[in-house]
Amino acid sequence: MAITQAMILAAGKGTRMQPLTLRTPKPLVPVAGKPLIVWHIERLAQAGIRHITLNAGYLADVLIAGLADLNIEEKLNISLHISVEKGEPLETAGGIKYALHQGLLNHAPFILVNGDVWTEYDFTSLCHHKLGDYLAHLLLVDNPDHNLAGDFVLHEGKVLTKAANGSSLTFAGISVLSDKLLDEVAVGQIAPLAPYLSTAMAQSKVTGEKMHNKWVDVGTLERLASLEQYLDGNQ
């Protein structure tokens, strides 16, 4: 069965992109005239994803209103669900668990995308990825200048922590996850995803592949400007 659901992480404050993000949530920051999150939504829809969930926290009302104005659901023939996190941000794993609890994600494998990255990657292959007994499948990229130490090691198709031997790569913020990865996360718990991935890696339950498509972590104004320059030269 092909994967038909995805979640985009969109609740962050984007403090490193101020003043742009003082009144505009980072997912709505324009990249070459199109909100950053719309690039993801369009590529996911093109790959066959029909149900997309976003988590929202910082400036959630602005994000919801902005997406409604874009009329994305009708234009792309998708269902867009927003999980609003009130109070303290739930972090990555906590946010996913909350979306699952609300029924905004089915208890089946889903594609997870960090809302603050940009890529030309075609999600079609991920839609057909079969996790089997594994808990996660991660996309990795060559280490960018701002993360030269890397995050994980890719060895014979398995993803390992950097304690293992081998050259490290950077997690692209794109993955296929099993909801079972979050079995130990309580609803409402503030929990990052990394510790649960590390535990699964220690159990040889995480696979991965290296991605060669253009990829940018749009975390600063400088990287945003560089991406816009790249797009201006390729349109």
From TrEMBL:
Gene3D superfamilies (UniProt xref): Spore Coat Polysaccharide Biosynthesis Protein SpsA, Chain A
Domain of life: Bacteria
GO molecular function list: glucose-1-phosphate cytidylyltransferase activity
The enzyme's E.C. designation: 2.7.7.33
One Pfam family this sequence matches: NTP_transferase
Nucleotidyl transferase domain boundaries: 6-129
PANTHER family: N-ACETYLMURAMATE ALPHA-1-PHOSPHATE URIDYLYLTRANSFERASE (PTHR43584:SF8), NUCLEOTIDYL TRANSFERASE (PTHR43584)
Descriptive protein name: Glucose-1-phosphate cytidylyltransferase
